[in-house]
Amino acid sequence: MPPPAPTPPPRTTPFPTPAAISAIFQYRFSSSGLDAFDTHVAPDVDVTITGQDHQRAGHNLGKADFRREFERTNAAIDGEKNLSKEVIRVIGGGESEWAAVEVRMTGTTKAGKDYVHEFVYTVKFNLEGKISVIRVYADTAHVASHNHENKVGRSHIGDDLRKVPAKIAV
To answer: What is the C-alpha to C-alpha distance for residues 25 and 164, in angstroms, rounded to an integer?
Structure first.
């Protein structure tokens, strides 16, 4: 069993520092890892998975929707076979409510193929230090290919995701 994710250091700035944000995003792809990540997410988080005409694109409102979509997106991955996630860099945070988090995830799919996915989250923190907005910029062709090979279906909300207006404030 891998060691637990690091605990973010106490805040000394209005928003989490890059080191604290990196620790938040070191969660494991398991229910216990998602539980730890959830403690850093506002209940009404506004999540957009960017892209056009692919299975995961859309807009989710609230932590429960985001969690269900996240679990579905990762259904193609065999979590028992050396799944790892690495935060490459964090830009922003600290004095800024916005941060970009570059991530690399590697592992093996349930079909036995290598899975190497690089993606970026842009996140906005509220004054309580909780993530209130998440935008995911992913290699959607890569994800769609693995989802197809592993028979992972469409988003739980389906095409209706594109009908929810974004409410992101800058």
So the answer is: 26
Q: Tell me the C-alpha distance between 150 and 106, whole Å.
A: 16
Coil, strand or helix at 145: helix
Cα 163 to its chain centre, rounded Å, is 21
pLDDT per position as a tens digit, 102-146 = 999 888 877 788 878 888 999 999 999 999 999 989 876 666 665
Query: What is the DSSP pairing of strand 84-92 with strand 58-61?
Result: unpaired
22 backbone φψ class: left, alpha, beta (φ>0; ψ -120 to 50)? alpha
- Of 19, 2, 8, the residue nearest 92 (C-alpha): 19
What is the CA angle 61-159-59, rounded to 5? 25
User: 3-class DSSP state for residue 147?
Assistant: helix
> pTM for the whole thing?
0.74
Cβ contact 158:69 at 8 Å: no
Cα separation, 20 vs 90, in Å, equals 10
pLDDT, tens only, 60-82: 778 887 777 667 666 667 665 66
pLDDT in the model for residue 142? 61
